[in-house]
Amino acid sequence: MHQTFRRFLSAVLLAGFLAPAFAAAPARTAAEYGDKELALITRMTARLLSRNHYRQQKLDVPLSRQLFDEYLDELDPGKLYFTEEDVAGFARERDTLCRQLENGDSSFAFRVYDVFRKRVGEFRAFAEKRLKEPFDFALDESFTPDRSKAPRAKNREELEKLWYLRLKNDVLSYRLMNRVQEEERAENAGKLTEEEKKRLETAAKWEIRNPGEKVLSRLRDISNDITQKDKVDILGIYLNSLAQVYGPHSNYYAPKLEEDFEMSMNLSLSGIGATLTSDGGYIKIVGLTPGGPAALDGRLKVEDRIIAVAQENEEPVDVIDMPLSKAVQLIRGPEKSKVTLTILPGEKGRSAVPETITLTRDKIVLVESEAKGEVRTVKAADGRERRIGIITLPGFYMDFDAAMKGDPNYKSCTRDVKKILENFKKEKVDAVVMDLRRNGGGSLPEAITLTGLFIPSGPVVQIRSADQRIAVKSDEDDEQIYAGPLVVLTSKLSASAAEIFSAAIRDCERGIIVGDSRTFGKGTVLDVVPLDRYLHYIGEDFPAGSATYETAMFFRIAGGSVQQLGIAADIPLPSLTDQMEVGEMFMNNHLPWDSVKPAPGVRSFTSDFGKKVEKLKALSKERIEKDPEYGAFLKKLELYNKYKDRKTVSLNEEARWREYREEKQLQDEADKLYEQQTGDDKKNSGDKDLILKEATNIAADFSTL
Prior knowledge:
Blueprint: H1 3-12, H2 35-52, H3 61-75, H4 84-90, H5 97-102, H6 107-130, E1 142-143, H7 156-188, H8 194-206, H9 211-228, H10 231-246, E2 251-253, H11 258-266, E3 274-279, E4 282-288, H12 293-297, E5 305-311, E6 317-318, H13 324-331, E7 338-344, E8 355-360, E9 372-379, E10 385-392, H14 400-404, H15 413-427, E11 431-435, H16 444-452, E12 458-465, E13 470-475, E14 486-490, H17 497-507, E15 512-515, E16 524-530, H18 532-535, E17 546-555, E18 571-572, H19 576-579, H20 609-626, H21 628-644, E19 649-650, H22 653-678, H23 690-704
């Protein structure tokens, strides 16, 4: 992809749908990165972020202090390795880190990493010695798995106590997993389908009869990975910490081979279509690519945690505590090959037991992610039947290459939705539901033109750059394809372009927002810059990595920011995603909500809009309270929240086993009630979409008003 198209692409893309792929510079071995190259990379990255990021934040003492904290948290998020004594020793340079960066000095990063590497080795040696003795699982002890907000150990004595609790929890977790699988096999002996037998056989391969050896094997892998990192990798961690101080969508990607470079840019599981993060030692699913194998299969879900990965006809590999990049490499693979994931289902909380999912890797083809339409007949509150058109839009896509070449028939979501709406006219629908619940964003121009299908013309979004200049982007086309009742269905996973469209529709009172209490809150424009381009000005040429950072902020035409708070629903509907801590507001160093003046020319397209919303909200509430299907669903949400809110786990095996049995019983009862009320069973579980069903009911009522 050449430079002019790259610049065009980065200008119109919003994070979440597409990530531009860059041609990597020729590979260079770690030995070829000397002090000169590392100093150049350090200076360039620091200056690029300080001068071009939306924050316009100088490399000063406050930023230096933030970088200090961010780097320590990046290396040791679980507070397992650095003590307060260690941090006090590092703190002598806390106020001078930015001055060092401006001079190309990154020596602090390597000094801290040396202590980190040493401490990881000490933990491994501690584990090897301690695991020679059995643990007493009858003691009344507990452990906090998520220590991200916990204080650090004061000294070595406290640290070793923490190591003891961590080891004991790891061993107990493996013991309980083995115990659960033994029970499951005993309970289901003789009444399993061939598919279920195969699943249990795969899960059994992952079992290790000696949990202590399993823990040691994992620690050896972690220790080896940390020990083998070279200087350019360590610098990459440090500069990425600097980028993260500026904003959660800002990153520095160290020079790598082309495949690793593209993988780090996308942060997605190439081949199955899932986005992941590292969370408390687990590899957690945070998004599914529409049209990808995982999304089409339907079993892998957001919040699921991957604990093992198996290639076809090979033994599973434990990925707990494995670096994210290494886990990605295991899941990537040749097209049409199979990969088996052992997961802990997120919706089952701590009572989750390992399940296996086998997926066939495939290319993520854009056409599979295109807009789809259907028509349903729904009975409104007045008893009359209404025809509701439903459009599912996974992303705001556009064939940029074809558009740049002047192809008049280039693919775009606006064109596809226009065809669907024209078909809806022939079908004589009474209302339309636009389902954006899994829409992570995409093309800004498409968000504007798609809005234009529902309004005659007018402003759609405001964009403020770092220099505080504001540009109003409008739909200039007077053609309105659909003018009837409109419901936009959103969730906390709806982001970027999806939020721009939703906000524009709501602010001109053209449609009603229904779904989760709010959307994601991603309201910034990103730019992606390969650092190599700057080296040519000083006569240098080597792979220097790439930086991504926020350059502008989106504002609604009513004046409020899309950032942080997202778009609030007019009619909130209870859902699993609404219970999750998902969104910009949960990301460190996010840009705050802000506001500007409303855009000129904003008008309302629906008379008595507020009164109609209140009427529809009352009808929806009454309907949900009487709906046994929704009642069963709400019971499952209560259980999810009960699991989610627990902070500690017992290290007493029988107490932990009783907790598991109680939670499993409650989960089974909730599942049974849900199946009875919805008519679902294990063969068609998941076919019922209660949120979409209620959205169509609201649309039907809207059409009567």
